[in-house]
Design a protein that fits this description.
Elements: E1 4-5, H1 11-24, E2 27-34, E3 37-44, H2 47-53, H3 56-62, H4 73-84, E4 92-95, H5 102-109, E5 113-118, H6 121-134, H7 137-143, E6 144-148, E7 160-166, H8 175-185, E8 186-196, H9 200-211, E9 214-225, E10 228-239
Parallel strand pairs: 4-5, 4-7, 5-6, 7-8
Antiparallel strand pairs: 1-6, 2-3, 8-10, 9-10
Helix pairs in contact: 1-6, 4-5
């Protein structure tokens, strides 16, 4: 696959990886029960501290914020759908903006062959660590891989049946480049499944996708997290025939 592969991690290196993450970040474990499956996700305790720590000159150079460091509520709905929908089993999946990896891990658990991608190497370290901790060894070896993918320069991406994105729509500037990625990453009958917390920017993206020839089906789901319920919109995008 063109997204640059991250070398495989074995059990012998997991302790060192955790130590490396802990040396750079204040970590916490978030335990989740999704569709009858238990997940223990290692995440950054305070993602806002990462934003505060970004030097102005670094932000001016690439304008990238560490969105990957949060476990977004939208990803819980995406993971639930992967675990509950029988169409996920056996298909090829590309997760974009995977962050700490929940949706891709759930898709692999459901029987898909998954490539989790993000532009940030640290996000991929968390994703690989979480995958190793949450998936049986045979699933890790046969069904899941991780690689760097930059939406600005995706190169040649092997087309997949299913593209996943949890809370990846955050500014208008990415609309066209994201749809360009869909065009090259999806097989002719492929589907992109996106989730977001019913933001205006998400609705605007769906309008642009419709203009670009995508058929769209959206459903609203209430997602409980702690004492809060969030409405998450799950949208399925498929090219018009």
């Amino acid at each position: 696959m063109t997204p640059r592969d991250v070398p495989a991690i074995t059990g012998a290196t997991m302790e060192a990886l955790h130590a490396s993450l802990a040396a750079r970040y204040d970590l916490r474990l978030e335990e989740l029960d999704i569709a009858g499956h238990r997940f223990g996700m290692t995440v950054v305790r305070d993602s806002y501290a990462l934003v505060d720590a970004i030097a102005p000159e670094i932000f001016a150079a690439n304008e990238r914020l560490p969105y990957w460091a949060d476990l977004w509520t939208s990803s819980l709905e995406l993971a639930r759908w992967c675990l509950m929908d029988p169409s996920v089993a056996g298909v090829s999946v590309l997760e974009i903006g995977c962050g700490v990896g929940l949706a891709g891990i759930a898709a692999a658990q459901a029987g898909a062959r998954v490539l989790m991608t993000d532009v940030d190497p640290d996000a991929l370290m968390f994703a690989r660590y979480n995958a190793f901790k949450n998936l049986p060894g045979p699933v890790m070896r046969s069904s899941l891989s991780v690689g760097v993918l930059d939406w600005d320069a995706p190169g040649s991406v092997e087309p997949v049946d299913l593209l996943l994105g949890g809370d990846v729509i955050y500014e208008r500037a990415i609309f066209n480049r994201l749809l360009d990625l869909f065009d090259i990453a999806l097989r002719p009958q492929g589907v992109a499944v996106l989730t977001d917390p019913d933001r205006a920017i998400g609705r605007a993206f769906l309008e642009r996708a419709a203009e670009r020839g995508y058929e769209i089906r959206s459903e609203a789901q209430k997602v409980a997290r702690g004492s809060m319920d969030t409405t998450v919109i799950r949208s399925h995008l498929r090219r018009s025939r």
